[in-house]
Amino acid sequence: MAHTSPATVGMPVEEIDTPCLVVDLDAFERNVDKLGRYMRDHGLRHRAHAKTHKSADIAKVQIERGGACGVCCQKVGEAEALVEAGLRDVLVSNQVVAPKKIARLAALATRARVLVCVDDLGNVDDLSAAAVEAGSTLECLVEIDVGAGRCGVAPGEAAVALARRIADRPGLAFAGLQAYQGRAQHVRDHGERRALIQTAIDETKRTVALLEAEGLPCAIVAGAGTGSFEMEGASGVYNELQCGSYVFMDADYQRVRDSGDRPISEFENSLFILTAVMSKAKPDIAICDAGLKAQSVDSGMPLVFGRSDVEYLKASDEHGVIADPGNVLRLNDRLRLIPGHCDPTVNVHDWLVGVRDGRVEALWPVTARGALL
Amino acid sequence: MAHTSPATVGMPVEEIDTPCLVVDLDAFERNVDKLGRYMRDHGLRHRAHAKTHKSADIAKVQIERGGACGVCCQKVGEAEALVEAGLRDVLVSNQVVAPKKIARLAALATRARVLVCVDDLGNVDDLSAAAVEAGSTLECLVEIDVGAGRCGVAPGEAAVALARRIADRPGLAFAGLQAYQGRAQHVRDHGERRALIQTAIDETKRTVALLEAEGLPCAIVAGAGTGSFEMEGASGVYNELQCGSYVFMDADYQRVRDSGDRPISEFENSLFILTAVMSKAKPDIAICDAGLKAQSVDSGMPLVFGRSDVEYLKASDEHGVIADPGNVLRLNDRLRLIPGHCDPTVNVHDWLVGVRDGRVEALWPVTARGALL
User: Which residues fall in a coiled-coil region (chains A, B) (predicted)?
Assistant: First the structure.
């Protein structure tokens, strides 16, 4: 089920087959460098979120060039694929509760440092039993809900109860807190975002202090994303930030503004869907070859990069309808689309084609594509 | 990059790993039988659209059990994967205009009957040159735009010019018309849908007559989908119908009603996303393990099958938020979700798990998953 790759290394960009994902390596490296510098300058660890790119190659750039301490991912299957590809420090920043998945996670911890989030007392017992059985240690972060309304227990006493249970159980190590305010990341307005994150910081600080007072110090206080990391970074509370989308950016993140009404930290779009015109039977529209199966439109339509004369209007399964009011597009013309939402868009592709100076420089498999289990 | 399968044949359904796609084989077979009977009773050919399921196994059931004459797909890569898996009659119901793709299509036509749609005169010349080079014959359908506003030339003279060019060129055979009204398929109201399809029928009939008068008879007059096939089927104009979604159905197609305000032809939901609760830290919501990477939400959120007490509210990358007002859900509880839109949902999965009588009976690879090129 692996498919023909859209490019080979050394090929001129004009010859890349479409539709596919291309990575502008210069912009990508500037994003990696920019965040790496920030983390170094502020004495923070960056645990890069690999759910964005699902690529072991990109994770290695984030670690070796950007100074990241390791990666996060969301599924045991992603963790397995990344460890298989050489990664050695992986947090599953999510709950793992199904018995088979717990057994796989415990086995994986014999091959790499593996951390996982918990928000349920019974789950702590299950993780402990599996780790003992596998002869491994699972480091556990207690997840608190700091406003995202998703996973995680309430900050405060519930977190202490979980931490104590973890510390008491064999095969487990209490490693700290997961306190990610996911809902705030895409809030456009800087002031509104700041208010949400301030609440998250306050709740996290209170919980860290409570744990400390109970003899359960947090080695890791984790969270933050591309939309908010400078806030958690300046808090004095968080010490391990989990930015992922910053490497690629997308149309939706470009709408999230900093205090000067600029895109956050001036990260650049480095990920594009390369598409070609495949029907031009009408003067005012063109049909391109990238539709719903080449991207996710959950956060809106993609933007056409570097063009104000044409616009991506709508997507059907295999087609995109491009408004072409000037009738300038021709068959086989190529466009670069900025995906509406990078993470689920990467997940429908098998390859990332790295380009620089008009040539294909890298061809990276999407290592953990489709790793749902 | 092939991942662990979520099930093995013979396994009780309770042991299937999540999230994954399950097919209720009884409902699936009833759908196949129902459409097969309709086609037989009306003297029509069914060319099953494989873009829905991308599965050679399902295509073979549609052909062997349902009487389909062959399959359609939308990409050369899909056609290659299906021919590789044993299919022998494949229409790429789409334009193929990139030189590399044309060469692959012409080569494929040495191994199977291959048909393709055209809406550009220059493309006819390119297809001809490639077929001559490969020593194959490409059967071409002229695509007319009968209201979908996507690919295809205007009905009438433009179609005649294309047909004549095809007939004149070596390596090609003029096979008829592609006249698919895609926009009408999901129109909820029966009367409104009927009006759109009637226009498509009228325009197609006129074009068929014009071609006939020019000595270019149409062996194939193709189109129709799950939302409208009984209208094209009764037209006396169309003779090859391309229904695809009927095998699975989805939440959106369930909202499309027939003249008696019932779901179209009473096809049943046979495709489900099996998901499990992975966080239950709050009384009124549960978090399940199927988010944006386990489905496409372009046509809305999935429905929870057979349950009125819980509701799938929203999706983030790897999570679904389930309203659980009665606090009835527990960790590892399973739900069956009816996808909002079946085609792009299947495209993010590697496997279809066929179930019957509480056991896994079939494990089908999604043969052409991700075949974008």
Answer: none
Residue whose pair of structure tokens reads 């895409």 in the numeric block? A186
What is the SS3 assignment for B142? strand
A and B: number of Cβ contacts within 8 A: 196
β-strands B20-24, B271-279: how paired?
A: antiparallel
Per-residue pLDDT at B1: 41
Query: Which chain A residues are closer than 8 Å to B152 by Cβ?
Result: 279, 281
Q: How far apart, in whole angstroms, are the C-alpha atoms of residue B347 and residue B331? A: 28
pLDDT tens for residues A224-244? 999 999 999 999 999 999 999
**Which tokens go with A32?**
């990696």
Contact across the interface for A343 and B317, Cβ inside 8 Å: yes
Within 10 Å of residue B269's Cβ, how many Cβ atoms? 23
Decide if A248 contacts A270 (C-beta within 8 A).
yes
**What's the DSSP call for residue B312?**
E
- Cβ contact A48:A59 at 8 Å: yes
Residue A242 and residue A57: Cα distance in Å, rounded?
A: 18
Say if CB A315 and CB B347 are below 8 A apart: no
3-state secondary structure chain A: CCCCCCCCCCCEHHHCCCCEEEEEHHHHHHHHHHHHHHHHHCCCEEEEECCCCCCHHHHHHHHHCCCCCEEEECCHHHHHHHHHCCCCEEEEEEECCCHHHHHHHHHHCCCCEEEEEECCHHHHHHHHHHHHHHCCCEEEEEEECCCCCCCCECCCHHHHHHHHHHHHCCCEEEEEEECCCHHHCCCCCHHHHHHHHHHHHHHHHHHHHHHHHCCCCCCEEEECCCCCHHHHHCCCCCCEECCCHHHCCCHHHHCCECCCCCEHHHCCCCEEEEEEEEECCCCCEEEECCCHHHCCCCCCCCEECCCCCCEEEEECCCCEEEECCCCCCCCCCEEEEECCCHHHHHCCCCEEEEEECCEEEEEEECCCCCCCC
Nearest to A119 among B81, B94, B279 (CB): B279
Task: Please give chain B's pLDDT, 373 residues, in tens.
Answer: 446 899 999 999 999 999 999 999 999 999 999 999 999 999 999 999 999 999 999 999 999 999 999 999 999 999 999 999 999 999 999 999 999 999 999 999 999 999 999 999 999 999 999 999 999 999 999 999 999 999 999 999 999 999 999 999 999 999 999 999 999 999 999 999 999 999 999 999 999 999 999 999 999 999 999 999 999 999 999 999 999 999 999 999 989 988 888 877 789 999 999 999 999 999 999 999 999 999 999 999 999 999 999 999 999 999 999 999 999 999 999 999 999 999 999 999 999 999 999 999 999 999 999 999 9
Interchain pair B372, A315: CB under 8 A: no
In chain A, the domains with their CATH numbers are 13-21+266-365 (2.40.37.20), 88-248 (3.20.20.10)
* Below-50 pLDDT ranges, chain A: 1-2
Q: Point out which residues pair with B24 in neighbouring strands.
A: B355
Q: How far off is chain A from B122, nearest CA to CA, in Å? A: 10
Q: What is the pLDDT of residue B328?
A: 98
Helix (H, G, I), strand (E, B) or coil at B294: helix
CB A295 within 8 A of CB B52: no
Q: Which of B20, B97, B298 sits opposite A372 (nearest CB)?
A: B20
Distance from CA of A145 to the nearest CA of B (A): 9
With an 8 Å Cβ cutoff, are B332 and A294 in contact? no
From the list A13, A54, A105, A85, the residue with the least C-alpha distance to A244 is A54
A181 vs A184: CA distance, rounded Å: 6
Which one of B1, B281, B292 has the shortest CB-CB distance to A298? B292
